[in-house]
Specification:
The complex is a heterodimer of chains A (75) and B (737).
Chain A lengths: L10 E7 L3 H9 L7 E7 L6 E5 L2 E5 L1 H4 L2 E6 L1
Antiparallel strand pairs in A: 1-2, 1-5, 2-3, 3-4
Chain B lengths: L1 H6 L10 E7 L5 H9 L4 E4 L6 E9 L2 E7 L11 H13 L3 E7 L3 H13 L4 E6 L1 H6 L3 E2 L1 H8 L2 E4 L8 H13 L13 H17 L1 H6 L2 H9 L3 H6 L12 H10 L3 H20 E2 L8 H9 L5 H45 L4 H38 L1 H15 L7 H9 L1 H7 L6 H10 L9 H11 L4 H25 L10 E3 L8 H35 L11 H13 L7 H10 L5 H10 L4 H6 L4 H24 L16 H10 L2 H13 L4 H11 L3 H27 L5
Parallel strand pairs in B: 1-4, 1-5, 5-6, 6-8
Antiparallel strand pairs in B: 2-3, 3-4, 7-9
Helix pairs in contact in B: 2-23, 4-13, 8-10, 8-12, 15-16, 15-28, 16-23, 18-19, 19-31, 20-32, 21-29, 21-30, 23-26, 24-25, 25-26, 30-32
Classes of the chains: A alpha+beta (75), B alpha/beta (737).
Chain lengths: 75, 737
């Protein structure tokens, strides 16, 4: 399961960040870390990117970027 | 204060100036806070070598001189973006006396992540806990004393928009700056494993690379080497990670926590930030649905998101234009009326030769007029763009549009430079620096000239006023859309040809909506507007004087056609004939328009409007009448601006066309053009080569003429082809020749 597959309103706990280099560092700097719980808020009107809540703030990222973030769904 | 100053002798002349660096996350209200502290004392410039904006101010607080330096807003001090590198290099190289860390109190944890990294530098830190009122309203209770104890740094709650806490912040700066030894921040421990490993690396540095200790704070360097920081490894010439793979403690760290020490460090910093947040902050039992969420339900809505976005953009342009037009008009009238008349009368009195009077009035004063007329529209545009940025909507615009931008190989953030391009292509070119990937940066810059800038607007206004007065708004809007449409086509074309490869990241905060403070907004608008005025204003002025020479030399030419400009234009005109405007007058105005597009109208004015001296003399008002008229018409302009805004949307007429001044020019244009050729001409003006100032911006931003060369080439071809298609296509459809 990855973050891009979550529907708006669903929560997930990050288990792995597959991205490399600047993308990974950027995600981590923004608080997207393994073990962190995130919630998908919205999908942009044109279907991409998505908006998530992480660390109590709103972050947007493309689905292609979210695909590299493995999550387990939190009920 | 005064009595105190008498007792204490003044400090010696070589008094130390405190250097204070202001760091903080984007959207933490850093600009507003700096505006609140320094106000109009701010000097705006660029960081050396790059074109990221640098704000600086020198101020005095209780006899202490303070040099305030605004660092670019960053989330971290990793070396991956230009902004982060600038902030980091400044902190390392200049070792400021105090770092002001602007923290968004409503978003404590993520902001403290940067704070942790600032503390690693070992420099004195004063934390400004900004947006404190909003945090309070959200039911967040923050124990500032507890933060001070843990970090060993002063914490001052501030509300930059209301100027609250500014005095206390200044006092803290001075107090900490005065006594830096005692105010070093505490070392915030990242746990035994990391600290032991860092200690080991530090020992190794001391033993093997003692020179590095002089360049970097030791603990910071050790931590950076642990996480394998690219820039530090490069600067220290230590090659790869291997150099520090050695010691027992580092090996233990890798065994216990995995190979990815960069992730481990991020975890550790966030861990401390989260721990501290839990310790010092109490949340209210029940959190209200935030205003931001309510707004976003509409603004980012699946169906409404794009219509709202388009409406917002349209509104911005309507407001910009309608508010500023009466004032532009007023300035135009004043310069070309009373001011010109006065100068003329004065010079005649002094028995100045004819050519000098002409140069002064038609060259110099008209040139000043060209510049001044743009002040209102440029400032209004800057105001609304700044409002969009400060309110948080700009990020939503990028979110809503990213998919579309991405299809053209662009980034959602490309939208912002492209949008700025509608105001002026020049700042838009500079704004491409927000794009990290050089390829997409270049692609964005190439498409910017297709965004119809403010300088093209006066050309449309004159032509639309003559031929399409009844639906002026719609026609002008269609030109903007034409530019956008072509940008899409060219974007895809470029993406598939010159540009291939990876796309940049799209990882962007959607900050809470906030009402930007009016004063901060005005200061910001003024800064940006002033920049335009100085850069473009000087240019426009110089060019209109130059144009006067081109038009009037050789001196004594009876016909404009025989002037140097006319001769050049006659050569170019045949090329434009298939486009419907193959006369030398149009060609001449297009030639001068290359240097700045609004000059197209100026040149046309010079060429088409004969100097009607007799007409002027018959009814020249007295000086008294002129002065009275100035005041009365300014008030009228203000009233008109207000009425414009509240007038029914869509049916706005441009006030300029009603005015006397342009009447002679418009009469001639009516004879020289048809509606069809006028539209083709406007399309040509939209598309043909960007102005010289844009060329300079390209050169500046990319360090070579290469990308401007590409832009120049494709635009010339595109302009000719599109104008041809409009004119010839229109004729075929029977729209008249």
């Amino acid at each position: 399961m990855n973050l891009a597959k979550l529907a708006p309103g669903e929560r997930g706990k990050i288990t792995k960040i597959g991205a490399l280099g600047p993308l990974k560092r950027r995600l981590m700097d923004m608080g997207v870390l393994v073990g962190e719980e995130v919630r998908v808020e919205k999908v942009a009107p044109l279907g991409d990117p998505i908006e998530i809540t992480v660390k109590n703030y709103k972050l947007s990222l493309r689905k292609s970027e979210a695909e590299g973030i493995a999550v387990e769904v939190v009920a | 204060m005064k009595s105190l100053a008498l007792k204490i002798p003044p400090a010696p002349a070589a008094q130390k100036i405190l250097t204070v660096a202001v760091a903080g996350n984007p959207n933490a209200g850093k600009s507003t806070l700096i505006n609140a502290i320094a106000g109009t004392r701010l000097q705006v410039g660029n960081w050396p070598g790059v074109t990221v904006e640098k704000k600086e101010a020198v101020l005095e607080y209780q006899g202490q001189k303070i040099r305030l330096v605004d660092l670019p807003g960053t989330y971290s001090l990793s070396p991956y973006s230009e902004e982060e590198r600038i902030a980091r290099d400044f902190l390392l190289e200049e070792a400021p006396d105090v770092i002001i860390d602007v923290i968004d109190a409503t978003n404590l944890e993520r902001n403290l992540y940067l704070t942790m990294q600032l503390l690693e530098l070992g420099l004195p830190v004063v934390a400004a806990l900004n947006i404190y009122d909003e945090a309070h309203n959200q039911g967040l209770q923050i124990n500032t004393r507890a933060i001070e104890e843990v970090l060993g740094a002063r914490v001052v709650p501030t509300v930059a928009t209301k100027k609250r806490g500014v005095e206390e912040l200044l006092a803290a700066m001075v107090a900490v700056g005065d006594d830096p030894g005692a105010r070093r921040p505490r070392t915030v421990s990242y746990g035994t494993d990391i600290e032991t490993a860092a200690q080991e690396v530090a020992e190794e540095i001391k033993r093997l690379h003692p020179h590095l200790e002089e360049r970097y704070p030791l603990r910071w360097l050790a931590l950076k080497l642990l996480e394998g920081d690219r820039q530090v490894l490069q600067e220290a010439r230590l090659g790869g990670n291997e150099a520090f793979a050695g010691g027992q403690a580092v090996r233990h760290l890798r065994q216990a926590h995995g190979e990815d020490l960069e992730a481990l460090m991020a975890d550790a910093r966030y861990g401390r930030a989260a721990g501290l947040t839990r310790e010092v902050m109490k949340k209210a039992e029940r959190q209200r649905t935030e205003l931001t969420e309510k707004i976003d339900r509409w603004v980012l809505n699946r169906f409404l998101g794009i219509p709202i976005f388009l409406a917002a953009m349209w509104l911005v342009f309507k407001l910009t234009f309608d508010l500023s037009a009466p004032f532009s008009d007023w300035m135009d009238q004043m310069i070309n009326g009373p001011f010109k008349r006065g100068a003329e009368a004065l010079m005649t009195l002094l028995q100045a030769p004819d050519w000098l009077v002409s140069l002064a009035t038609d060259g110099v004063i008209a040139g000043v007029g060209f510049v001044l007329v743009f002040i209102p529209v440029i400032f209004a545009m800057m105001f609304f763009i700044t409002f969009l940025e400060g309110s948080g909507y700009m990020a939503r615009a990028a979110f809503v549009m990213d998919r579309a931008m991405h299809a053209m190989g662009l980034h959602g953030k490309s939208f912002i430079p492209l949008l700025l391009g509608f105001g002026c292509n020049v700042p838009a070119i500079y704004a491409t620096r927000t794009l990290e990937n050089p390829r997409d940066k270049a692609l964005t810059a190439l498409l910017i000239p297709l965004m119809s800038c403010g300088a093209r607007l006066p050309v449309y206004v004159v032509f639309v006023g003559v031929f399409f007065a009844a639906y002026s708004g719609t026609v002008i809007w269609s030109l903007y859309v034409l530019g956008l449409g072509l940008a899409v086509i060219m974007g895809v074309l470029f993406k598939k040809t010159i540009f291939r490869g990876e796309y940049p990241l799209f990882i962007m905060e959607l900050p809470p909506y906030r009402l930007p403070g009016l004063k901060s907004l005005l200061i910001h608008t003024w800064e940006k507007g002033k920049h335009f005025l100085i850069k473009a204003g000087t240019y426009i002025f110089a060019v209109s004087v130059l144009t006067w020479f081109l038009l009037n030399l050789p001196w004594g030419v009876e016909q404009k056609k025989d002037s140097y400009l006319g001769q050049a234009a006659a050569v170019v005109a045949p090329v434009l004939k298939p486009l419907g405007f193959g006369n030398w007058e149009a060609a001449a105005s297009l030639i001068t328009g290359v240097i700045a597009k609004e000059i197209v109208v100026g040149t046309m004015g010079e060429i088409y409007t004969p100097k009607a001296k007799d007409a002027k003399q018959e009814a020249a008002p007295t000086l008294g009448e002129d002065l009275k008229e100035m005041g009365v018409s300014f008030l009228a302009a203000g009233k008109e601006a207000v009425l414009n805004v509240f007038s029914s949307f869509g049916s706005t007429k441009f006030s300029m066309e009603e005015k006397e001044k342009n009447r002679p020019l418009k009469a001639v244009i009516q004879q020289q053009f048809t509606p069809l050729s006028a539209y083709a001409f406007m399309a040509f003006v939209l598309l043909y080569m960007p102005c010289m100032v844009v060329a300079v911006a390209f050169r500046h931003e990319f360090g070579s003429w290469k990308w401007f060369g590409v832009a120049f080439g494709y635009e010339m071809i595109l302009a000719w082809v599109v104008a041809l298609a409009i004119y010839q296509g229109g004729k075929l459809l029977g729209l008249g020749g």
